[in-house]
Specification:
By secondary structure, the chain is of the alpha/beta class. It has 7 helices and 8 strands, in the order E-H-H-E-H-E-H-H-E-H-E-E-E-E-H. The strands form 2 sheets. Strands 3-2-4-1-5-6 form a 6-stranded mixed sheet, with helices on both faces. A two-stranded antiparallel ribbon has the order 7-8. The termini are far apart.
């Protein structure tokens, strides 16, 4: 089975640099255009079905991709929704660290729960769409947590994902593996992940 995690298109909150989380902000016109362009870029012969999180921006992105690729929409998954950022949602990202040092926002979903939740979504999709090639539209932080959970690295070490960035996974020998991160081969991203771990270990040793 092959599955790609796709970040949704742009919203007005993305454009304004606001923390979005589970706040259900719709796509803007740029986001819709991004999804349409992605549908023209992806090869419909590579995919069988499109699924998404339950949030509107992901569902609309999935609908645009499905229509452009001539594929069915195969369902929505609550476990694909973005991390809940609690009281920080709607705040300028540039002001987050000043207001909440350490980014411990009241009402925030614990970091250690996000990756396993995303993995549960993958497992559910695999049951619902066995042996299919699936495009799964989700959210930037959720996707980075899933990639980190699978590769054994910190999600903060992963690069920020652009809207409509595609990160491919493969299922083989009873395990998921990361093939690409936002369109870049995992082997190319790995040195950055390893370096980030080394930097953290050095900081702890000082």
């Amino acid at each position: 089975m092959h599955l790609a995690l796709v970040r949704h298109g742009q919203t007005d909150w993305n454009l304004r640099g606001l923390m979005q989380g589970r706040t259900d902000i719709p796509l803007n016109d740029t986001g819709r255009a991004q999804a349409g362009q992605a549908a023209r870029t992806l090869d419909p012969a590579d995919w069988d079905v499109v699924v998404s999180s339950t949030l509107g921006r992901a569902r609309e992105t999935a609908a645009i991709l499905a229509e452009g690729l001539g594929l069915p929409v195969g369902g929505e998954y609550e476990d694909l929704v973005e991390q809940d950022f609690g009281d920080a949602e709607g705040t300028l990202v540039a002001q987050i660290d000043e207001r909440w040092p350490g980014r411990e926002f009241p009402g925030k979903e614990p970091e250690h729960e996000v990756g396993p939740r995303g993995i549960r979504a993958l497992e559910r999709i695999a049951v619902d769409h066995s042996d299919a090639r699936v495009l799964a539209v989700a959210h930037g932080t959720l996707i980075r947590h899933v990639l980190a959970e699978l590769s054994g690295h910190e999600q903060h070490s992963y690069p920020k994902l652009d809207n409509l960035a595609v990160s491919r996974l493969a299922w083989a020998e009873s395990a998921w593996s990361v093939q690409t991160v936002g369109g870049v081969g995992f082997d190319e991203v790995l040195p950055q992940l390893v370096a980030a771990v080394a930097d953290v270990e050095l900081e702890r040793a000082v």
